[in-house]
Write a structure and sequence with these properties.
This protein has a domain of 37 residues. The chain has three helices and no strands. Helix 2 runs antiparallel to helix 3.
Length: 57
């Protein structure tokens, strides 16, 4: 039930993302939103963001 409410709230939330948001920032935001639901998936997203930053640097 909570997942459904989160999806509805996300749908109506205004999208004020920066145009040039980095993929690492997007991955970290997704990891933060998944942390309470699936900790393993959130950790994978954080690892992907870290890998992206190491490639870019």
């Amino acid at each position: 039930m909570f997942h459904l409410l989160a999806l509805v709230a996300r749908f109506f939330r205004p999208t004020l993302q920066a145009v040039d948001a980095s993929p690492a920032a997007i991955l970290m935001q997704n990891a933060d939103s998944r942390a309470g639901l699936d900790a393993h998936h959130a950790q994978e997203l954080r690892a992907a963001a870290s890998a992206w930053l190491s490639v870019v640097r």
